[in-house]
Design a protein that fits this description.
heterodimer, A: about 120 residues, alpha+beta, Beta-Lactamase, 5-stranded antiparallel beta sheet, about 40% helix, globular, B: about 280 residues, Serine Threonine Protein Phosphatase 5, Tetratricopeptide repeat, 2 domains, 13 helices, about 15% strand
Chain lengths: ~120, ~280
């Protein structure tokens, strides 16, 4: 997929009300592949931590016999981090306000993950 | 009032797709006719599954019937459709209050207050919840004619078996796991779908998750983390932090909705918190 394709995949995610920004992160090394983040968000650091969290969760879920991870949601007092692993080893990540419609954001993240491949 | 029920019933019979079921269901609920209210709310919800008020009505009826887990799911569904729905925010505040999570109860009430600043019952409920008066708070919110504690809430509040963290909770020996920051099992157990005990490897992989979640939340300016919900191909999990040094894992199959899993996790976290305090 081209850089334009990545940006297009993130567009629909960031259009959801309450989504502050979104990015594609390489799960293996925690590096940003593409991003549309609001100013002030420390993208590289967040990408690294999201990648590490995804790896730990993925291993724990595999050990528990739960199969592949589909979606996860870090709930915080002032917002949330939503993550969908795409098939290609890329994580689709969204940073949101507390009042975001999680169901809608999840749907757009799943679509973006499908588009990313 | 009986006449009003008759009028609304007739109106609904003439036009089953109309929204009059909302008024009828609420009227029946307020009269304590919970079985007919349940039927009206459920039929209405089947016709209007994307309508937030239909989920809210059904949740109110379920709460009156003390089916708190399903009420939670319905209010959760309401907020997915209409994130600022004041009735659902008040309802969830009530449920969080019931399980002793004052912070979440207040947070939901404050969100409700932002959406309905002129509603005096919300400010009153915030004060009552902070003051620990559940019956008065529930009454102020118009949620429930408060009933005696349910078996589930009584079990959660009862003293626990010293040796077993999650005694009395569903899934205590197969889907609830308490671990420390170093990935060591403190209590509970986890089994895979084949029935094998996988507590130790899962705990080991989750070591450090709490610190990473806290760092991620801090970097993003998201405050403090209070839960991590994850969906996998063959199950759902929820992580919570009953204390600064411990992590709680709840695992269920995919038939358990994420919203319900969150409330199960809240109960288990309270039990774990009490157990940890006794061990200190």
């Amino acid at each position: 997929m081209t850089a334009g394709g990545f940006a297009h995949a993130l567009d629909a995610v960031t259009r959801v009300r309450g989504v502050r920004g979104a990015m594609l992160v390489s799960a293996a090394d925690g590096l940003i592949v593409a991003d549309q983040l609001m100013e002030g968000i420390k993208g590289p650091a967040v990408a690294a931590l999201a990648g590490s969290l995804a790896n730990r969760l993925g291993r724990a879920m595999a050990a528990a016999g739960m199969g592949d991870s589909v979606f996860w949601h870090l709930q915080c007092t002032a917002g949330a981090l939503l993550v969908v692993p795409a098939g290609s080893g890329v994580l689709v990540v969204a940073v949101t306000d507390p009042e975001v419609n999680v169901g809608l954001a999840r749907l757009e993240l799943l679509r973006a993950a499908e588009a990313v491949g | 009032m009986a006449d009003e029920v008759k009028v609304l019933s007739a109106e609904l019979a003439q036009d089953p797709a109309s929204l009059v079921f909302l008024r009828l269901g609420e009227l029946l609920r307020q009269r304590g006719q919970l079985d007919p209210a349940h039927r009206v709310a459920l039929n209405g919800l089947e016709r209007h599954p994307h309508r937030a008020d239909a989920h809210d009505l059904y949740a109110r009826v379920l709460a009156d019937k003390r089916d708190y887990e399903r009420a939670f799911d319905e209010w959760d569904a309401t907020l997915r459709i209409a994130p600022g729905h004041v009735g659902a925010l008040k309802g969830l505040a009530f449920l969080y209050f019931k399980v002793g999570d004052i912070a979440q109860a207040v947070a939901h009430l404050e969100t409700a207050q932002r959406h309905a600043p002129d509603d005096p019952s919300i400010a009153q409920a915030v004060a009552l919840v902070r003051g620990g008066q559940p019956a008065a708070a529930a009454s102020g919110l118009g949620i429930e004619r408060v009933a005696p504690p349910t078996p589930a809430s009584a079990a959660a509040a009862a003293p626990l078996d010293e040796a077993r963290v999650f005694a009395g909770l569903e899934g205590a020996e197969e889907g609830l796991l308490l671990l420390d920051a170093a990935g060591r099992v403190l209590g509970g157990a986890l089994r895979d779908p084949g029935g094998r005990d996988v507590s130790e490897p899962v705990a080991a992989y989750l070591a450090g998750v709490s610190q990473e979640a806290a760092r991620t939340a801090k970097l993003l300016g998201l405050g403090t983390w209070n839960g991590l919900a994850a969906e996998a191909r063959q199950g759902h999990l929820h992580l919570a932090q009953p204390s600064a040094e411990a992590l709680l894992l709840v695992v269920r199959d995919r038939s358990v909705p994420m919203g319900r899993l969150a409330i199960i996790a809240q109960r288990a976290a309270q039990a774990a918190h009490r157990w940890l305090e006794r061990q200190a």
